[in-house]
Amino acid sequence: MLDNMTPNTPTLSQPASKSLASLDADIIIKNAPDPIFISDLEGKILSANDAVYELLGFRNDEVLEQSLSRFISAEETREFLAALKEVIERGSTRNARLNPRTASNEVIPTTLNASALRDTDGKAIGAIGILRDMRELDKARALADSLIKNAPDPIFVSDLEGKILSANDAVYELLGFRPDEVLEQSLSRFISAEETREFLAALKEVIERGTTRNARLNPRTASNEVIPTTLNASALRDTDGKVIGAIGILRDMRAYEKILQDLQESKAELQEKILDLEKFEEVVVGRELKMIALEKEIENLRRELEKARGQSKWT
């Protein structure tokens, strides 16, 4: 918390009397539910709120004036300093991954959002960092990854440009490609230019509505076979709720379309048989009519003959 800053701490605001705005900032940071700290440009921690101590399990004097390198690995320290450089250049950085080690030696996955801390002349003199404990979210993601990996249907995750970020075994089985031939590749590698445009339109619908259903895709496999599929997709969101991609589920439609084709063929055969039957019926009915007409003609002739015999008998 800002009140815990030592007297030798570099001045971050007006030294003698704090403005109302800075006092309000101190109160907000102190009572914020998320762990918040202030560091200088070398990564030394100048201030922290209670949530930081609660997260890490250290006392105030074990955190303040300490370098972040005490709590994170050498590699992550380099990444943090790179993030600080981004803060200086751009004013902020978002979702940097840090895995600080606690007093009990537990490694806690977190994300860091940081913004520039500036002096009265507007010069960046440090950073205000907000940590987000990712343990529960990482567990949820691990569960989701497990569900996706073991799902019977082909499932993939793409960014908003259509680049494939993740896929389960069913995708590789469907397409016949190795993971390194699918991951980080654009969907345009597997579908036509027209369908790529349709997929991007579906992604737009995902962003606006959260889902899209029954989009048609016909990906080409490693053996050059074109497979008819339908795509159902839902939005993939970051921790702030912003749509960052899509989770797509493909359904292989080959068996379904084979059934449709068989039905169409059966319908065509049935129509042909009906036509033949109608022709046969026409022939049979025509012959029957001719037989009836012939029988009538014979009957008329018989009557005329009998009539003629009767007349010749009386003459």
Q: What does this entry look like structurally?
A:
- The chain has 315 residues and is an alpha+beta fold.
- The protein folds into two domains: 2-133, 2-Layer Sandwich (Beta-Lactamase); 138-256, Beta-Lactamase, CATH 3.30.450.
- The protein has helices at residues 20-31, 50-56, 74-90, 135-149, 169-175, 193-209, 254-313; strands spanning 36-40, 45-48, 92-98, 110-118, 124-133, 155-159, 164-167, 211-217, 229-237, 243-252.
- The strands form two sheets. Strands 2-1-5-4-3 form a five-stranded antiparallel β-sheet.
- A hairpin with a 5-residue loop joins β4 (110-118) and β5 (124-133).
- The relative contact order is 0.07.
- Residues 1-23 have low confidence and may be disordered.
Would you spell out the secondary-structure blueprint of this structure?
Blueprint: H1 20-31, E1 36-40, E2 45-48, H2 50-56, H3 74-90, E3 92-98, E4 110-118, E5 124-133, H4 135-149, E6 155-159, E7 164-167, H5 169-175, H6 193-209, E8 211-217, E9 229-237, E10 243-252, H7 254-313
Antiparallel strand pairs: 1-2, 1-5, 3-4, 4-5, 6-7, 6-10, 8-9, 9-10
Quick overview of this protein structure:
With 315 residues, this protein is α+β, with helices and mostly antiparallel strands. It has seven helices and ten strands. 43% of the residues lie in helices and 22% in strands.
